[in-house]
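Researcher: Hi, I'm a grad student and pretty new to this. My advisor asked me to get structures for two proteins we've been looking at. I'm not sure of the right format, so I'll just paste the first sequence and hope you can take it from there.
Model: That works fine. Here's the first sequence with its structure tokens right after it:
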Amino acid sequence: MDGTIRADISLGLHVAIVLKKDQKTGKLTTGVVQRILTNSRTHPHGIKVRLESGEIGRVKEILD
């Protein structure tokens, strides 16, 4: 499942995100959602979240 719909993402979910610095390479970082930062219902590039590690990026894949 991709991460473009906010309703599909919840706190504590294990996801793969792309960090701003990795957008050109597409390198994914995995972690657990601490906070959802995007307010709109959908976003074409993925919903922006903060992981428990403090990293911020857009969800590309939901792993749970």
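Researcher: Oh nice, that was easy. Here's the second one.
Model: And its structure:
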Amino acid sequence: MRNVNKENITQAVLDSIAHTADPRTKQIMQALIRHLHAFAREVELTEDELMKGIEFLTATGHKCTGTRQEFILLSDVLGLSMLAVAMNNDKPAACTEATVFGPFFVPGAPHYDDGADVANGAPGTPCDVRCTVRGLRGEPIAGAEIDVWQADDEGTYDVQKEGLDHAQARGRLTSRADGSFHFRSIVPEAYPIPTDGPVGTLLHATKRHPWRPAHLHFMIKAPGYETLVTHIFREGDEYLDSDAVFGVRQSLIRAIDRQADGTYLMAYDFVLNPQTA
């Protein structure tokens, strides 16, 4: 492998991984090498620019913590997360659409009884959330495990708050025999994604805003059905057509209506896709 140059180096690197045992690893690495090299040639990448790119990725890694995933955020704002979701969630039209996972999911959220206050002190306007979980044939799904999480009126998730020792606006519920579940939380509000790291620097450099339209996150799991990761977006939000992470789907937009007692109500019927062998 002597005398490599800008014409033959791509093939030399491809030849070096020719004996990769796993076919899928080999396929992915071959494509990655070809496209990375093609990108460098297309933009005539300088050594200084390459180093700046490496420094950017290094800083992205340093910004990650146990409760913040800057690489997911980077994938989100580049549209890569939503592209992967769209390619891997081709479901029948009647099923609830999937969208991005986001960087602020935390496993092991506290379990709440039906009707409980998941907000748990999070600042915001009280809101009832009433939903059902059904299968594609309309069958109610009992015992589905539902994770819910959202930002508060201050535009932050509980895991972003220093010194907070309990979950807020985050929890886990179980659907009842008729597939329904109900909890109290707060009205979702639009908020900016974190801009104090490399992703924020990228957004500033490309003249993009960091705002996400108001939404609640849901992850629903049930035996015999595909896991659903999605949001419900608040109708009328000004950022529905310019979501910083490209996650909005028309079918996921719902009104949040004011009730007689001054609280608000959001309702949605989730439809899960049956698992295939």
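Researcher: Is there anything I should tell my advisor about the second?
Model: You could mention this: Residues 23-43 form the longest helix (21 residues).
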